[in-house]
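A brief tutorial aside. Many learners find it easier to grasp structure tokens once they have seen a single protein encoded end to end. The record that follows does exactly this for MFS transporter. Read the sequence first, then the structure, and try to relate runs of similar tokens to stretches of the chain.
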Amino acid sequence: MMANDGATIRSRQEPSPDAGAESPQWPRPVYGWYVVGVLLLAYTLSFVDRMILSLLVAPIRAALDISDTEVSLLIGLAFALFYTLLGLPLAWIADRWNRRNLILVGVALWSVMTAGCGFAGSYATLFLARMGVGVGEAALSPAAYSMLSDTFPRDRLARALAVYSIGVPLGSGVAMILGAFVVQAVLAAPMVDLPFVGPVEAWRTIFLWVAAPGLLVCLLLLTVREPLRQGRRQAAAHADEPPAPGFLAHLVRQRAALGALFVGMALIGLVMYGVIAWVPTFFFRTYGMEVSRAGLWFGVIMAIGGAAGLVLGGTLADRMFGKGVADAHLRVMRLSILLGGPPLLAAALMPDAVLAFAMLAIAFPMLTMHGVGTVALQLITPNEYRARVTALYFFIVNLTGLGFGPMLMALLTDQLFGDDAALRYSIALVTGVAMPLAAIILTVGFRAFARELAKMSDGA
């Protein structure tokens, strides 16, 4: 079943005896990709909603009289705290109830709360509104990954989840690109008259515009069916076990493989979320470039390069896995760090803006290949735990990356260097430490992951 080094297995296993006569009926490919498209749109909008604030640093600081660190809390921790904490109970619901409906409610909630950010009259109320955005978005990915794992067979799952994950760079890129033009409009017309409200600062209306498309996504979700949960017969053999102890026992059994995935991805997220949050401001402070212009070019790099990297990573992982490389997904993740980490670090230290953008254009397609880590989770997780394991993964990765990545870079700038212009060195320092650690930890997890995949393939 496995090679002597524990690195390979047969990629397409026959059903185990425990599966009995089970023969999963997968949806038609055309419909499956339609589901991917709808979920991709939702994921893209979620990132537009959460990332648009990073282009509004200057007007928000001026309006609320706050520091870089306080802004970083709005960008990161205010959102990530509830996004991560509520992800677990919402995933418990997703493992038991209609996942499509759960996602629909989540999209509606985060859209309303994003609009609410525009009406926040103080730092505290804006902080609370950002928490509300996190609550809504917590419903999406655990349920979406579970749905797609029941829509595509595992030898095509990496590509499907890679396309869904394009929502991360695409949404962030769209936020930067649209934000570039919107910020220019804000500077040209600082006040806007809203019906029934009166004159308000123009930056507040941006939240209303980015929240509106959520209504369209809600309508599209009504055309998606809740998929049949694959593999339930095997799970039924353990139906008499209490759900919580079974889930905890699963985590303990897979602690080595899951630990490598969780910690490795958390360190990557620490860098990626920090960079995405601060790059437009970095170009302004280091090279004197307008934030809107920097956001435009960075948005193009993220949208195109990030999407290409995710598809490349998913395709490469599927091919390696199809050839019997059991730890293919972890190897692709490590490769993304080795190829993308050095140019990302170099970008922060370039002598001019053109070279910095060139380094980012090289780094992002490579770094986003690490998105196949979420596929690795699905391959070693039983159906009845998929949403919860995915939520736990997002809890750790996002609390570390989104919650502390922007804040760590801000704290280093404020407290270690004590100079706004030193933001470039904060980015370089975090990248230079976290990326090599992530590569090492993922490498250590290769064998443990291959063992767990073999057990899943054997029906253990």
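Self-check: The chain has a mean pLDDT of 83. If you spotted this yourself, you are ready for the next section.
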